[in-house]
Amino acid sequence: MERRISLITLGVDDLDRATRFYELLGWRRAAESQAEVTFFQLVGQVLALYPRENLAADLGIRTSGAASVTLAQNLRSRDEVEFLYSEAVTAGGTPLRTPYETGWGGYVAYIADPDGHVWEFAHNPAFPLADDATLTLPSATRPAT
Amino acid sequence: MERRISLITLGVDDLDRATRFYELLGWRRAAESQAEVTFFQLVGQVLALYPRENLAADLGIRTSGAASVTLAQNLRSRDEVEFLYSEAVTAGGTPLRTPYETGWGGYVAYIADPDGHVWEFAHNPAFPLADDATLTLPSATRPAT
């Protein structure tokens, strides 16, 4: 079975507010969206926004605070990191860390969306993006030994 | 700019324990992994496991408990949902919800990994997977109007 993450669901306090934040970033709410769920088409993957109480009901538990997660959008240049960081803050994101040079040669910024979901905007010269913007680790493109 | 999530990072309490859980599911630790980070190659995307304290240091904040997130692996049949659920529980995952029929015609199960990160295993006949296992919303394959 292939390893994959097909769909990422963010539990949100206010679905309209959360949807607006991503729309302000230029994302387009997909036609499959409904009153209680917003879908966005990503490269080969879907992001869903979904009220926290619905999520808790589906899971049968209150989702725990223990799970720290970041969602990264890797970019093609440092300029793109600065551009997207600034766009996200203008759209109402909470600045967590302004763009900075990492110890591993990358360039990274962090923001939180209106519900506290952390996004990383990153330029990583060691992990180049394909033409279709997918990310494949260099070792995974070498023949298996 | 394309919309994408290139890399998903899970903050973990014990990197060896977390890595072992995914290896027990048949995932292979990528050569790019280091002492303080484990990478897994997914379809067009990378999953990273990273100690919570390193994550907190990078972000400049303790990650908040407010962010509820699920990671979904969509599958090709109900049998695959049952198989993967059972595999994940055997690997040490916490069963949250045994496979059940949803109101929207799907078949879904939930488990938590050793650090509480919630995985959804889903068969959704309305959102078919491509041959390469990527998920594209039906509306995104229709010409824009």
Structural account:
The structure is a homodimer. Chain A has helices spanning about 15-25, 50-60, 80-90, and strands spanning about 5-10, 40, 45-50, 70-75, 95-100, 105-110, 120-125. Chain A is α/β, with parallel strands linked by helices. The first copy, chain A, has 2 domains: about 1-60, 2,3-Dihydroxybiphenyl 1,2-Dioxygenase, domain 1 (Roll), CATH 3.10.180; about 70-145, Roll (2,3-Dihydroxybiphenyl 1,2-Dioxygenase, domain 1), CATH 3.10.180.10. Chain A has a 4-stranded mixed β-sheet with strand order 4-7-6-5. Chain A has a 3-stranded mixed β-sheet with strand order 1-3-2. In chain A, strand 5 (about 95-100) and strand 6 (about 105-110) form a beta hairpin. The mean pLDDT of chain A is about 85. Chains A and B meet through strand 1, strand 2, strand 3, helix 2 and strand 4 of A and strand 1, strand 2, strand 3, helix 2 and strand 4 of B.
Q: Helix and strand layout, with pairings?
A:
Two copies of one chain form a homodimer.
Chain A: E1 7-12, H1 15-24, E2 38-42, E3 45-51, H2 52-59, E4 69-74, H3 78-90, E5 94-101, E6 107-112, E7 118-123
Parallel strand pairs in A: 1-3, 4-7
Antiparallel strand pairs in A: 2-3, 5-6, 6-7
In short:
The structure is a homodimer. In chain A, about 20% of the residues lie in helices and about 30% in strands.
Q: Give the strand line-up of the largest sheet of chain A.
A: 4-7-6-5
Structural class by secondary-structure content of chain A: alpha/beta
Low-confidence stretches of chain A: none
The figure for the number of domains of chain A is: 2
Beta-strand share of residues of chain A: 25-35%
Order of helices and strands of chain A: EHEEHEHEEE
Question: How would you sum up the global shape of chain A?
Answer: globular
Percent helix of chain A, as a range, is 10-25%
Question: Measured on Cα atoms, how large is the radius of gyration of chain A?
Answer: 16 Å
CATH fold-level label of the largest domain in chain A? 2,3-Dihydroxybiphenyl 1,2-Dioxygenase, domain 1
> How confident overall, as mean pLDDT of chain A?
86
* CATH class term of the largest domain in chain A: Alpha Beta
Major sheet characteristics of chain A: 4 strands, mixed
Number of strands of chain A: 7
Give the end-to-end Cα distance of chain A, rounded to a whole number of Å.
20 Å
* Oligomeric state, counting identical vs distinct chains: homodimer
The CATH architecture of the largest domain in chain A comes to: Roll
> What is the overall number of helices of chain A?
3
The largest inter-chain interface, given as chain pair and residues per side, is:
A-B, 70 and 70 residues
The CATH superfamily of the largest domain in chain A is identified as 2,3-Dihydroxybiphenyl 1,2-Dioxygenase, domain 1
